[in-house]
Write the structure tokens for this entry.
Amino acid sequence: MDERAGGCSIGEYLISSRSPAEYRAMFALDDSDLTGKVLDCPGGGASFTAEANELGADATAVDPLYRRNAAVIAQYALDEVARGSDWMAKNRDRYRWDFYGDLEGHQRMRRASAEKFATDILAHPERYRAGALPRLPFPDGTFDLVLSSHLLFTYADRLDYRFHIDALRELARVARGNVRVFPLVDQAGERRDDLLPPLLVELESLGLSPQVRTVDYEFQHGADAMLVLDASHRRSDGTSHP
Ligand SMILES: C[S@@+](CC[C@H](N)C(=O)[O-])C[C@H]1O[C@@H](n2cnc3c(N)ncnc32)[C@H](O)[C@@H]1O
């Protein structure tokens, strides 16, 4: 494992359950964004997909976790809230708490989200597709909006530059609108010079017009920006990677 995270690693990928309120804030979303086909990858235990469908979007979540039985996944997401909260308690100083109030407020929000996710995956298993970046099980240009939170950059201790560029190209391949990625720091809250700057150069050369946009959400100190890719300028045959 890469030591640049300063010994700050949560271990196995956390199956976290961010709430729709967190998604709206970190991706600067409003209701007008939640109308067409939306992809959340990785979906983890987040209740964003449940809420987006309630609002009238056609939202799908993808995660390798969804290979498992829906009842097992639902329980797993609930169990992971405790692991996430233990981590937050031990690393309190790495975060700003104003969005949540305090650790308890954070845990309440995540538990409510995990419960909503659990109900939704049992009622609508078709919304939750098994898959893993850098290969997604969808044709080119399927989604109006593609969201990706807390996999890329976050797990830079185990996912290298090649994985990041392949994953970002794949997210752009399945998009016909834009791709939004948050956060742009690793688990230690560090901006990685070996990732973001060269990625911006390569993504620009691929015609994806990458932009780093500040958002009105900051939980890890200094993590107040998302990466936006524009996948709307596809080649006319619509079949190849940008
Ligand atoms: C920290 S969670 C983020 C979940 C959700 N986006 C959220 O913010 O609450 C990270 C997720 O990445 C998933 N994951 C791990 N490797 C992956 C891959 N290669 N492709 C897609 N998802 C992956 C894990 O299963 C886990 O659910």
Summary: The helical segments are 20-26, 48-54, 70-90, 103-123, 161-173, 196-205. The first helix runs from residue 20 to 26. The longest strand covers residues 175-182.
